[in-house]
Amino acid sequence: MSVPFEQQKDKILAELGDGKTYAEITQQDRVEVRNALTRISDSLQKAGGVDQLSESDKAKVFNDQELVNTILTRAGEDSRQVCTREKKVGSHRPTTQCYTVAERRRMREDTQNDINKNFRQPILKSN
């Protein structure tokens, strides 16, 4: 049993707006998803349903559907939270550190950039 498109659209828009489900989605991707959902909705309303769409319109709807699925899948994976137990230096008490997958990737990239930047700077000798 399939859920009517408008219900799916409303659910996706609500999840985009809740700030949790797709926390790591970029503003550009958010706009692309909304635009694609609007195009799909308009096409379905004009034709009166999927069965009445022309072949070219079916292809456009399919491509917009794939765009939405790709963006939301990536954003969902990036928004997944991963927690680890770590001991801070000088302490025997472990603490829980929770970050999204995207936050961990940004921290790793920032650290790598800092390391690379430090290696590229010339060493100044003092007299």
Written description of the protein model:
With 127 residues, the chain is mostly helical. It folds into two domains: 74 residues; 40 residues. A hairpin with a 6-residue loop joins strand 1 and strand 2. Helix 1 packs antiparallel against helix 2 and helix 2 runs antiparallel to helix 3. The N and C termini lie far apart (80 Å).
Element order, helices and strands?
A: HHHEEH
How large, in whole angstroms, is the Cα Rg?
A: 23 Å
Mean pLDDT: 88
Count of individual helical segments: 4
Q: In percent, how helical is the residue content?
A: 55-70%
Poorly predicted ranges: none
N-to-C span: 80 Å
Quick one: how many beta strands?
A: 2
Q: Name the beta content range.
A: 5-15%
Structural class category: mainly alpha
Biggest sheet, spatial arrangement of strands: 1-2
Main beta-sheet annotation: 2 strands, antiparallel
Q: What number of structural domains do the residues give?
A: 2
Shape: elongated
Short description:
The chain has 127 residues and is mainly alpha-helical. It is built from 4 helices and 2 strands.
List the helices and strands and how they pair.
Layout: H1 5-17, H2 27-47, H3 55-78, E1 81-87, E2 94-100, H4 101-120
Antiparallel strand pairs: 1-2
Task: Summarize this structure as a short list of keywords or feature phrases.
61% helix, 4 helices, two-stranded antiparallel sheet
